[in-house]
Write a structure and sequence with these properties.
269 residues, alpha/beta, Cobalt-precorrin-4 Transmethylase, domain 1, Methyltransferase, Cobalt-precorrin-4 Transmethylase, Domain 2, 3 domains, 5-stranded mixed β-sheet, 10 strands
């Protein structure tokens, strides 16, 4: 029988899928990050199940206990407090061990704080980076900002309410105009999404707010300018390769991109 990795609501209990509810009801054992949180979800939907704690500090011991149960044919469901187990939540160790042991593993997908925040922020693009929790120490934060400046796309991170002011102040020091969205209490009654430049939001959240926080960072303006210039130079090169005189190509692209024709011409030589 399989290990079923079940995504649970990140806030609103109505966001659980029908498949997850069925899997939780049919499981011989449900492994939970916090049995009290999972019990609330099950009670809301009238499901009775045997719950066993599976949190970060008991992962190794519980994994050793669960593998023989899977081998014996029991159906095991794995949940975390919110979202999908194994992504910044306990579960990755058990999933890897089950696969290594030859057990069947399946995922019942569902709500995601990462993608919910990304879409709600309005900063989504064709790709994005998920960086987990923001580093606690300033050198780690500064290194992360440098990496994301080179990434060239939106990024999503988790942060605790207590550390949010320091994180926003650090981002503002890197670039006060860096676009960012603070997504608080997603899908819950008091959901709040505040967007703006890093400097603006650092002032707005000078004191820690309440609730769960997901951050979405857009591309810093300086990086966007560099990418636009790079694309403009590439467009000139493509036109020249197609037979367009270099000065004509530079003038046409400059008019479209709003940049200097002379600078584009010189850069294309």
């Amino acid at each position: 029988m399989p290990l079923v990795v079940c995504a649970t609501p990140i806030g609103n209990l109505e966001d659980v899928t029908l498949r997850v509810l069925r899997e939780l009801g049919e499981a011989d054992l449900v492994l939970c990050e916090d049995t009290r949180r999972t019990r609330i979800l099950l009670d809301r939907h009238g499901i009775r199940a045997r719950l066993v704690s599976y949190e970060r500090f008991s992962e190794a011991r519980r994994t050793a206990e669960v593998l023989p149960l899977l081998d014996a044919g029991q159906r095991i469901a794995l949940v975390s407090d919110a979202g999908l187990p194994g992504v910044n939540d306990p579960g990755a160790r058990l999933i890897a061990a089950a696969l290594e042991a030859g057990a069947e593993v399946t995922v019942a997908p569902g709500p995601s704080a990462v993608e919910t925040a990304l879409v709600r922020s309005g900063l989504a693009g064709e790709r994005y980076a998920f960086v987990g929790y923001v580093p606690r120490a300033e050198p780690g934060r500064a290194a992360l900002w440098r990496q994301l400046a080179d990434w060239g796309g939106p990024a999503v991170a988790f942060e605790s309410p207590a550390r949010l002011p320091r994180t926003l102040a650090s981002l503002a020091a890197a670039d006060p105009a860096w676009p960012v969205a603070v997504c608080r209490e997603l899908t819950k009654r008091y959901e709040e999404v505040v967007s703006g430049g890093a400097g603006e939001l650092a002032a707005r959240f000078a004191q820690p707010p309440r609730g769960e926080i997901t951050l979405v960072l857009g591309s810093p303006p300086a990086r966007e300018d560099a990418r636009s210039a790079e694309h403009a130079r590439a467009a000139v090169g493509a036109l020249v390769a197609a037979g367009t005189p270099r000065r004509v190509a530079a003038r046409v692209v400059a008019d479209l991109a709003g940049v200097s024709a002379n600078a584009l011409y010189d850069a294309s030589l």
